[in-house]
Amino acid sequence: MLKGKKIVLGVTGSIAAYKAAVLVRLLVKEGAEVQVVMTPSAKEFITPLTLSTLSGRPVLSEFFNTGNGSWHSHVELGLWADAMIVAPATASTLGKMAAGVADNLLVTTYMSMKAPVFIAPAMDLDMYAHPATVHNIGTLKAYGNHIIEAAAGELASHLCGKGRMEEPENIVKALKDFFLTDRDLEGKRVLITAGPTYEKIDPVRFIGNYSSGKMGFAIAAECARRGAAVTLVAGPVSLPTPHPAIERIDVESAREMCETAVAVFPSCDAAVLSAAVADYRPAVQASSKIKRTSDGMTIDLEANPDIAATLGRAKKEGQCLAGFALETDNAEENACKKLEKKNLDFIVLNSLEDEGAGFSCDTNKVTIIDRNGKNAYPLKSKAGVAKDVVSHLAKLLMLLVMLFVPSFASAEGEELNATVNLNSSKVQGSNTEVFTMLRDALDEFINTRKWTTNFYEENERIMCSFNFVVNSYANDGSFDCSLMVQASRPVFGSSYNSVLFKYEDPSVKFKYQPYDRLEFIEDNLDNNLTAVIAFYVYMIIGMDLDSMGELGGSEFLNKALTIANNAQNLGDSGWRAGGSDNNRHSIIDDYMNGALEPVRKLMYKYHRLGLDTMFKSADGGRKAITESIKLLKQAYDDRPMAYFTELFTEYKVDEIVNVYSKCTPEEKKDVVKILSEINPSLSSEWDKITRNNN
User: Fold this and answer.
1) 656 Cβ neighbours under 8 A, 6+ residues apart
2) Do residues 244 and 383 share a domain?
3) Dist CA 610 CA 337 (whole Å)
4) Residue 570 pLDDT class (50, 70, 90 cuts)
5) Secondary-structure percent of the chain, ordered helix, strand, coil, rounded to 5
6) What contacts 260, CB < 8 A, 6 or more positions away?
7) CA 327 → CA 1, 302, 345, 463, distances in Å?
8) C-alpha–C-alpha distance, residues 560 and 562, integer Å
9) Does 212 share its domain with 172?
10) What percent of the chain has pLDDT over 70?
């Protein structure tokens, strides 16, 4: 995860500086390049020679090399690094970083840093709890830095309390976890509105509200962290821009915010409208201060432009638009009306009735509502809420990519490009015409039925095959078949198709009469054949959507699960046959089981971030696939008897062996160890990975 990453490690004058030696060693062991920058006082606690020896690079401390006059460029370090860690960070350095006091090389490097910054404080417990330190840490958090909280324990003063620098192993873990985060908005442009608007009455008075802008700024920071190009249109707030990749446009009034949003939105993939926009403004704005009189004062108000409704009318296919609703009564009803009226894709509801939610708080409690339902979340920090909102946004964007891609196929059947084969060689003396009719009926049923509202380009359709082998056939139209189902998804930018799902279903029993037209009604399962086909089609589409966006196929996977739950009433085998752990029900139940959620998450990481990336960057794609296999191991550890983890390795075996034909021996060893534990029956195939020295 850290292999090839360039890390600047800032070390300050604390007794905890001795831990920097361990931290450097661990980072180098992970494959990172480490450049140490020390404050002058840090050299009193640990020598530059020690850290230089461990990092393999000269330690930097002064602005100039007094021997030859060369300049140590903090600007170049800021551009070079993938991350900066300040560990330990003393109270003095925290204060300088928060206030921008750039009087040493470490702080100037921090202020020039384009990459994420991680800060691990270390000091005595009273200093750590002092309001000045708390304020400085809060300021640094607001700037978008990642604070690795100090641990509790015995301190250098021999007092016990919170103030110990976190252990190096945990600092490395925090860094690894950060780089594991999916950049699922890479290549997307997102518009965020945040804060209040002020509507002038005269030069010194205005109509406004209590919005702090914290929620919108947190969403902007999360979008930027996940790879999006963010334009933040901010009302009058005092918050700093939370991420260096954010383009910030400051406005004051609702009209200014609307004009800016309308100008920016056409070039965006999405917009999240979290600003608390004033609904009304004074009809007349006085040019000079209105003087107090003994009489009362009346202000005529006129409506401000409705930004959400304006963008909702302008929204194009493929764009996603989200809004916020702050309600005091009939909250869900009012939010749903706003969702429909303003043509939003989802709305984030928060209520002033919930303690800790709404204006001026650092926490929020929200319900995300879209046209498929709602998800209610507990009280969280606004950064935590931002993650939930942005995850929902990323999921919808991925679905919209598939939904609004122009189709070169026929008006129906855009999802699948399926072939149907029917082998009746085991049946003797039967009228072969019925088999031809059944095959044609199956082909028509699968390929012309509209299974979803999605649209696919011809080269993006799911490749499927349904291979039936007829074991017996009776004159009353009873069939007993086995079925091999296989589906593949196209890998972007290549002619390669990757297996998405493959399964041999040993027992499919049904009745079919010549000239029957196959039909499927979701809430009325009366034909086992159409139920079986619908089950596999929904499962395949769901898995394909999972590969396009994390957990993106839930709607269709739940349809497959519903069929599996209801179809047992048909009295035919294959659904829960004999308590077998590899019947249709157990396959979809495994896949949708909460313990196997890592398997669903690996579909996106393996296919979209892995295979789709490999044709641009072999190392980057393989890295994502390695992380996917680790997710598979996590699922296996949580539920070792699950059939689906084994099934995945079986239909992916040739692809996995091929992926790892060119990688380091260490990578091969780690992957083979995991795969051999999950599916030891394929050990001879996994051994090919280590034997292949290409």
Assistant:
1) 625, 629, 649, 671, 675, 689
2) yes
3) 41
4) low
5) 45, 20, 35
6) 233, 249, 251
7) 44, 22, 19, 47
8) 5
9) no
10) 90
Rounded to two decimals, the pTM is 0.46
- Hey, what are 421's tokens? 């084969």
634 within some domain: no
286: its two tokens: 């006085």
CB crowding 384-423: b at 16 or more within 10 Å, else e: bbbbbbbbbbbbbbbbbbbeebebebeeebbbbbbebebe
Residue carrying the six token digits 């920016």? 264
In eight-state DSSP terms, residue 476 is T
State the chain's mean pLDDT as an integer.
86
- Give the residue numbers marked as catalytic: 209
Q: Which residues pair with 58 in a beta bridge?
A: none
Domain contains 83:
yes
- How far is the first Cα of the chain from the last one, in angstroms, to the nearest whole number? 23
Work out how many domains the chain is built from and give that number. Answer: 3
- Asked if 137 and 275 sit in the same domain, the reply is no
Residue range(s) defining the domain that contains residue 337: 189-287+299-402
Among 246-255, 402-411, 467-476, 640-649, whose mean pLDDT is lowest? Answer: 402-411
Residue 572 has pLDDT above 70, yes or no: no
**Judgement on whether residues 49 and 176 belong to the same structural domain of the protein:** yes
- Judge whether residue 578 has pLDDT over 50: no
Residues 70, 122, single domain; the answer is yes
| pLDDT, average across residues 235-246 | 86
Same domain, 233 and 121: no
User: How confident is residue 92, by pLDDT bands cut at 50, 70 and 90?
Assistant: very high
CATH number, domain containing residue 334:
3.40.50.10300
Name the band, by pLDDT with cuts 50, 70 and 90, for residue 70: low
Question: How many CB atoms lie under 10 A from the CB of residue 205?
Answer: 16
Question: Do 414 and 387 sit in the same domain of this protein?
Answer: no
Q: What pLDDT does 544 receive?
A: 92
